[in-house]
Design brief:
The chain has one domain: Rossmann fold (3-Layer(aba) Sandwich), CATH 3.40.50. Helix content is 43%, strand content 16%. A 6-stranded mixed beta sheet has the order 3-4-2-1-5-6, sandwiched between helices. The longest helix is centred in the first third of the chain and has 18 residues. The radius of gyration is 18 Å and the shape is globular.
């Protein structure tokens, strides 16, 4: 699976990454978490896009072994991600909580996962932190009451669920 991550959007959404006082520390924390994630999920190709100027080695570089691209001064990271979605289409999974960007990516067939969902999965896989809803007696409510006929989710929701399960 090919993941494109809206870097600063994810940093500001996940409290464990947003602890940093400046953007550099948050970026380093994200890249370290992604390094651990990629170790356990090597089949997922991860690319991170950050807003901002050019890095010292150009607009593309590798941090902690993950490809990173900076949007530059004249473009935003949203424009870069939308262009990637237009180019690569349905095989791409975009991680962002930006509604406008999500809509632009969905038009081109990309699957969009919110930063909150991916952030919890990232911490669960990379750091061993239990995800939301795990632990305790949740999910053990057995009943004999019938729930009615089974309903199949729409195709787009099933596709998103399959992608989330592979994260």
């Amino acid at each position: 699976m090919r993941l494109v991550i809206d870097g600063y959007n994810l940093i500001h959404t996940v409290p464990e990454l947003a602890f940093a006082s400046d953007k550099g520390e948050g970026r380093e924390a994200l890249m370290e978490a992604l390094r651990l994630y990629r170790k356990k999920r090597p089949q997922n190709k991860v690319r991170v896009i950050f807003d901002g100027g050019i890095s010292p080695s150009g607009d593309k570089e590798h941090l902690a072994g993950t490809p990173v691209r900076y949007s530059g001064a004249e473009r935003s990271a949203d424009d870069v991600i939308a262009a990637l979605a237009a180019k690569e289409g349905g095989g791409l999974t975009v991680v962002t909580s930006d509604r406008e960007l999500a809509g632009r990516c969905r038009v081109h067939g990309a699957v969009v996962i919110s930063s909150e969902e991916f952030g919890s999965r990232l911490l669960e896989v990379a750091l061993g932190v239990p995800g939301a809803g795990e632990g305790g007696d949740e999910g053990w409510d057995f009943t004999t009451k019938k729930k009615g006929p089974a309903k199949r989710l729409p195709k787009a929701q099933r596709k998103k669920a399959r992608r989330k399960n592979r994260l």
